[in-house]
Write a structure and sequence with these properties.
The longest helix is centred in the C-terminal third of the chain and has 19 residues. With 135 residues, this protein is of the alpha+beta class. The protein has four helices and four strands. β1, α1 and β2 form a beta-alpha-beta unit.
């Protein structure tokens, strides 16, 4: 799969309500059209991630592919927030927290996400306007 160099791909859990809300938040604020999306459950994600790093295929982490590198968990979230600009600049303070601590919090939330926010029976279906941003 050929990805334009100016694009990053966000792989997310397509049945997780928190994850879907996060994607909708990003879609609304991605003014520079930097992101493409794919659910972790999709064949596109499985094929892409297996080709790039098979050990990261699990549904408890967001995966960001940017500049031919793969980022997961809290690092992926902070990079995405940075790309969104002013609306999320306050999140950049979290870079001072050691990655191991940030990721522990991320993993805790990831484990509880279905209980706290819910789970859909099927992956989200993008609107016709959003469809061009999904792989």
């Amino acid at each position: 799969m050929k990805i334009p160099e100016d694009k990053s791909i966000i792989f997310f859990d397509g049945v997780c309500v928190l994850c879907i809300w996060s994607v909708l938040f990003i879609l609304k604020r991605d003014k520079n059209n930097r992101f493409l999306f794919s659910t972790l459950q999709s064949d596109v994600a499985k094929q892409f991630l297996l080709q790039n790093d098979a050990k990261i295929i699990h549904k408890d982490s967001i995966v960001l592919f940017k500049n031919k590198k793969i980022y997961t968990a809290s690092t992926a979230v902070l990079i995405i927030c940075k790309e969104l600009g002013k609306c999320c600049m306050f999140t950049q303070i979290f870079w001072v927290i050691p990655k191991s601590w940030r990721d522990q919090l991320y993993v805790y939330i990831a484990r509880k996400r279905y209980k706290w926010f819910g789970k859909k029976d099927a992956c989200m279906i993008p609107t016709p306007e959003e469809k061009q941003k999904f792989l």
